[in-house]
Prior knowledge:
Layout: H1 2-20, H2 24-54, E1 67-77, E2 85-95, E3 98-107, E4 112-125, E5 131-143, E6 148-162, E7 173-188, E8 193-210, E9 214-221, E10 244-253, E11 257-265, E12 269-279
Antiparallel strand pairs: 1-2, 1-12, 2-3, 3-4, 4-5, 5-6, 6-7, 7-8, 8-9, 9-10, 10-11, 11-12
Helix pairs in contact: 1-2
Amino acid sequence: MLSALGAGIATLGGVSLASTGANRNVSAVGIPLLVSGVGIFGISWIADLYGSATGGTNAGPPEPTPVSLSLGYGRVDDPQFLYEHFAVLSAAFQFGRFQLEPSLWAALGADNDRSRVAGSYSLWKTGLGTEVKLQVAGTLHNFSDEGFATRTAESSLAGRWNLGSLGPRLAGSFAVLSAGVGYESIDLQMAGTTTGSSLLLGRAGFGAFLPGGGEAEFHYDHRRDTFAGGLTPSRRRGSGFAGSVGVSLRQPLGRRFAFKLASELGSAWVVSSGLEVRWGATQ
Length: 283
């Protein structure tokens, strides 16, 4: 049923784009429909594979952590820019239904840094790991060596569902889906001018809960304003129309610490790892 729903939504979005030549006014609706439809179809397909391979597991969602701080290392293999090695710092603060997540990527061998502050409000949440929330975020990326900077403001609606509620064969798995809009301004410091454009945001993913409160996730992210950029046939042609694909892993190491690992592939390949310190964790 979900596969048919996803295929229908994707077809509706794809036909609207193809029939209008990706008209700008139609794209604002057509692209989110296409990304959401493909995401639902893909999640359903992967969920079928998961159910056939595991038959469901007893692993459950991690317990919420009021405060966490992560420090790690990131590497960006991007043919367009000289940066490569980064120090990565992030934190998360939970205040009831509100969550605040600041982060910073600072290059170690170049004058480049990306700072971001994201906030969210939980509109609906269950104790089984299912949640719908409203997200807003602001990002500043300084390309000082190249003489420009980008600023992004965005908002989105994001959902996360514990798929175990759909049947025992999907126990231990979850799906994520989000859609939103943003605006990116580019400050050309050398020329003293500023330009900007709107962003259509979409993300779809499938994951599994791991023993001990960990989780692993595979996702597609339609945005192309990150270090990963967008998938492209050539490494030398810059960011493509599609977004990036990625995998992530978070595994607690006892009550206080957790190990994090992530990789994304678009026009650039991004990998990162880090150690998370948690306060107030109940595990």
